[in-house]
Amino acid sequence: MSAKRSEVVEYLNAYLKIADIEDRSNNGLQIQGADEIQTIGLAVDACLEAYQKAVSQKCQMLIVHHGLIWGGLTSITGAIYSQVKFAVLSDLNVYAAHLPLDAHDVCGNNIVLAKMLGLVDIKPFGLYKKNLIGFEGTLPKPLNAEQIGKTIQSNIGGKFSMLPFGKPENSRIAVVSGGGTDALDEAIDKGIDCFITGEGKHDNHHKALESRINVVYCGHYDTETVGVKALGGVLKKRFNVKPVFVDVPTLI
Fold first, then answer.
1. Residue (of 235, 164, 222, 150) closest to 194 by Cα position
2. How remote is the C-alpha of 51 from its chain's centroid?
3. How far is residue 54's CA from residue 48's CA, in Å, rounded to a whole number?
4. What CATH number labels 3-97+225-244?
5. Is 80 exceeded by the pLDDT of residue 1?
6. 103-221 has which CATH code?
7. Measured in whole angstroms, how far is the alpha carbon of residue 139 from the centre of its chain?
8. Please, which of 99, 111, 164, 245 could form a disulfide with 23 given CB 3.0 to 4.6 Å?
9. pLDDT at residue 252 in the model
């Protein structure tokens, strides 16, 4: 089976509500390729290695969380030129969904992570500009910070680290994937027991220590693999195309 590029793009734009979320990323179709889509690659980052792996797996489209165009390109030179050239010559469509794929309440990074933990009473969390891009909820049975980290690690792989400065048992949990560390202030203000994100900043240590909150870092890359994978399942069901996860891990 195959689907028209235009149909897939139109569906993604509407399903992810990309026009409704203010974002530095130029979300949507960033590089136009083949008209007919049989196989869709899903990756975290737009990069040459991801394009190469997608093409080697016979993908006609690659959907990424971190796209190629952020606020407009000033030039197409160097690494950007190499990426664009390879994609165009390979007839590969490249579609980006950044914050819309964080915030989505079905296949977004944060809702998937929240459900991995079994959170209940889930509601939006993590205000970024005018949008809530994360989720918070309650654990049916309290866990310590290490148990929370291990639960996520068992589902997504990678490693986790902690700032274990809060309660020994955690019930109220908030999740903002990737580089969502700025939402730590909101977690503190709302009395969250444990805040989960991908990576941290230096000043998180003292802020968490003095505010007596637990923070668990589960990797920027690893916490953002879950959204594209979930989206692949949605597209398989909707268009009967083949989804392929294109794994290009980073060191962060």
1. 164
2. 18
3. 10
4. 3.40.1390.30
5. no
6. 3.40.1390.30
7. 22
8. 99
9. 78
